[in-house]
Amino acid sequence: MPYSNSPVFTPAQRVQNYRYAIRNIVTHARKLEEQGRTVTYLNIGDPILYGFQPPEELIEANIQALQLGHNGYSPSSGITDAVLAIAEDARKRGIPTSAEDTIITFGASEAADLVCTSMLNPGDEVLCPAPGYPLYNAIIAKLNAREVSYTLDPRHGWLPDPDDIERKITSKTKILVVINPNNPTGEVYSKETLQQFIDIARRHRLLIITDEVYHKLVYDATHIPLASLAGDDVAVITIDSLSKNYMAPGWRTGWMMITNSRLVPDVRQAFIKLADARLCAPMTPQFSIRAAMQLDSTYHDTIVRRLRSQRDTTISMLNSIDGISCNQPEGAFYVMAQIQLADTPFTTDEEFVLKLLEEQQILFVHGSGFGTSAEDGFIRIVYLPGTDVLEDVYTRLATFLKSL
Ligand SMILES: Cc1ncc(COP(=O)(O)O)c(C=O)c1O
């Protein structure tokens, strides 16, 4: 049939349920900007927008790699020195893995995609935290697999309930996703909680994906890598990247590490096949990975000090506003705050977020974009900006709530 002016193609079925609230909501903010209004964006976790930069050592290594002419394709699993450095660091942190079981990817995002694409047939089920980072839901929807949410309960410090997880397991469940520290709740899991995840995976023969892209950004808690507790009979994929832990999201450099790969030899082969077909992750930033793994603690001490102060301002100001409450996050740079929707004219979290944007030009993301119920009134706030910006934002938020 010849082309005409009307649309000829429709999108494939698999993208119909593909949503990513963090970026989708920006369309509304852009419309306000077109009308000449200035918007304060607290929707996306990009540290570079708020004055953070990667460690100097990593930038130097990157520049040097470019100057030395490392501008070709790398091996599809990554350059040897980088996978060796990642595996050495992982073993020091108690994660049993090896360079052969490490694959460098386009950020943690591609690692999640590689694992799910390798493992899931249409109709297979994946247990994901709700609330949780929407990447997993999007990938699962794209594969025509099924996301099954397990609940993180705000009344119990956003912890999972092992019985709830276990009740949701069927013969089709293949993967259990853990995000630690969690985005959007900022919760860091204790050894006991991690052990519960592992016991469930062991009993039901599930593979665990543990997303630890914020493990260096932890305040008063201690981060324990899940794989360090897995023993020798549970297959675990640990996902990590330079994006948040080293504040270099634009370098699109991440990795996955398999623990107990002998339990999943064919799946490991499938990862490599997929990695081969997409050639390689960006080449030059891979040369900064050894510098990242060898960094002393000064860089992270400074960053965590700044983030802690921003978190403290956030918690104390939000909890002092009538009609808002929030828990204290122990990691990452997000907080889920709950609005008493019953005291407002709104029935959903998104209506609240959009009206706040219109009235005060502040952009948060509605909690339902991460899997909470829209009527529960959660919003996710990114507390990356300096305390002066945050104080102004929370003052305007209080004004807005009062005006309702
Ligand atoms: C929990 C979590 N995992 C993965 C990612 C994506 O990381 P990357 O930039 O390394 O793809 C993000 C980004 O916000 C995240 O919050």
UniProtKB/TrEMBL annotation:
Keyword terms of this UniProt record: Aminotransferase, Pyridoxal phosphate, Transferase
Keyword set includes Glycosyltransferase: no
A single GO molecular function term of this UniProt record: transaminase activity
EC number(s) per entry: 2.6.1.2
Stored InterPro entries: Ala_Aminotransferase, Aminotransferase_I/II_large, PyrdxlP-dep_Trfase, PyrdxlP-dep_Trfase_major, PyrdxlP-dep_Trfase_small, TyrNic_aminoTrfase
Entry keyword Transferase: yes
Cofactors demanded by this protein: pyridoxal 5'-phosphate
Segments forming domain Aminotransferase class I/classII large: 39-387
Family of the protein in this entry: Belongs to the class-I pyridoxal-phosphate-dependent aminotransferase family.
PANTHER family on file: GLUTAMATE-PYRUVATE AMINOTRANSFERASE ALAA
Name by which UniProt lists this protein: alanine transaminase
Organism of provenance: Prosthecochloris ethylica
